[in-house]
Every structure is written in structure tokens, then in C-alpha cells.
Amino acid sequence: MEKMYYDRLYENWVSNFALNLHHVWNESSAKDLDPSNNTEYEKENNSAIVIGSGPSVKKHRHLELLANSDYKGTIICCDSALRNALNAGVTPDKFPTFYVTTIDTDQIIRKYYDDPIVDAYGKKIKGIFSTVVNPLVTEHARKAGIKIYWLHSLFDYNEGKKSFNQISALMVRARKQRGLPAIQTGGNVGTSSWFIAWQILKCGLVGLIGINHSWDEETPLVDIISHGSGLNHTEIDRNSSAFEKLFPKIYNPEFNCHCILDPYFQYYSNALKDFIARSPTWVTTINATEGGCIFGKRITCTKFAEFLQKYNK
Questions:
Q1: Contact 54, 261 (CB under 8 A)
Q2: Which of 25, 242, 267, 288 is most buried, taking the most CB atoms under 10 A from its CB?
Q3: Residue 34: domain span
Q4: Could you tell me if residue 290 is left (phi over 0), alpha (psi between -120 and 50 degrees) or otherwise beta?
Q5: Per-residue pLDDT averaged across 21-39, rounded?
């Protein structure tokens, strides 16, 4: 899967980075968001909620629960969830420490910023963007008033000096001596946002909603096979062994539900669960998605209403 991403997206990474570089040099680094420079800051006493756009958000009315809560922590909204969150009342007026994240290189992501509700709140939102995001996306975010903070997405740093990660970091430091922070992404904005919560924003407790990384059982077959695009539909018997291997059904004992993983979600979920298992001991991850396949080592699962009651800080 990693090689597929590399082969398919490498030219996009290089092109987008080149077009973004002037802004990267002149705009803020995500390092500027690190609160631990304040000696009084205690990461163990600060929390964040990562909002994804998985189906459980709507199913369990998580945005409405959050909007009507008195939660005092940080909000980190995945780009695809931003409009729905704002429309539901999860806004920077109610939650002043409010971020949106974008990692994907495709220009289609700009649609998440091209909306009157984003324009209405943009000046109160901080955006954390990868240097390889499509420049049309960052242009829309800027027009909405969102202040951009840059970071690197790690994908080939293991190649050493010849890697694009190494070369792009050197180019950034040519005019920005402190450089930029870098994070693993797990191939998606949800996992990236989890990293941002503790690695950049130093929140010791990270709650997840809408991070299903899977399909509900009742999802139409065409969406499962095409990863939601509705394109390139291949005829395959849902009851065949080939389907079961490519699209396994998983039982989540924490939320007593089943879900289906396509090859992308298998990669995403395995990566996130591995990252969580290996995260620093001061990081606590609470999955309040109430669905999906994110459970296992060092993942505490709970209903979102209970999370809001227990971790209101």
C-alpha cells in the first residue's frame, strides 16, 4: 500500500510543494502552536477531540452532543468534517481553541473550504496543513480567513539524503532556519489529526469521534468496493472467499458492532492502531466513535456522552 501511494502521488507531492514553497517560507510553522514552551503548561491536563467524518458521527449525533456540551478542550476538525461541524454548532465561538487539518494532495479537498459557513468562521480557525497540499486548497482556506500553519508529512524519510522528505526539509530551512515539524500520517487526515493532537499541540488525552476507518454493514457494495467514489466498480460476489479476504467483516467487541474494511481501511486502521500502541506513555487515546474498527492495545473505548462527562477539560 505504501509503494502504491508513493508511485501514484510522488509527482503531486513535488509539484504541490514547489508551488507552496513561497508561502511556506513566509507563513507560520506548526511549531509555533506548541504550548509546551510555556513552563506552566501541563500536557497531562489538556485534551483534544479529533472530529472525523465517519458515519458514526451522524448515526449517534455526536456533533450535536458536542455543541451542547461545556467541553473546554481543543477541537481538531478533519477537513472533510469541517462544514458539518460548524453547521451543527461546533464553532470557534463556542470552542475557541479550534483547528482544521488537511494532509491530502488532491485539489478536490478545496470543496471543504468553499462554503459560506467556513467564510463566516474562518478568521477564528487555525489551519494545520502539509507542505504537499494542493495550492488551490490553501488558497481557498486563506480566502476564508484561516491562518495557515505548515508541517511536513513523512513518507520516504527512510531513504535518507536522497528522499523527498530530506530534500524538501532542506529547501524549507534555506529561508526558515527553524524548519518545520514533521508527522506520520498513516495515509489519511484522521490519523494525522491524532498525531497533531499530541505531537504538535501536546494534548495528553486525545478523544476520537468519526474515526471509523471502516464501512457499516449496510453500506452499498459499490461504495465499499470503490472506497466511496462510486467509480471503477468491479463485479464481485459479496459471499465469495475473495470478497471476504479483500473486504473482511470485523466484530468490534467494545461497541458490539460489525464493520467492513476495504484495502484502504485495512491499511489506515492497522497503521493507526500500531501508532497508538507505540505512542508515548503520557498520551491517552479514547475512542468515542461508537463504531468502526479502532480498538485494541492502549485504546480505551467509551460512548461519546460519557467521554464528555468524564474528560471535560
A1: no
A2: 288
A3: 2-310
A4: left
A5: 94
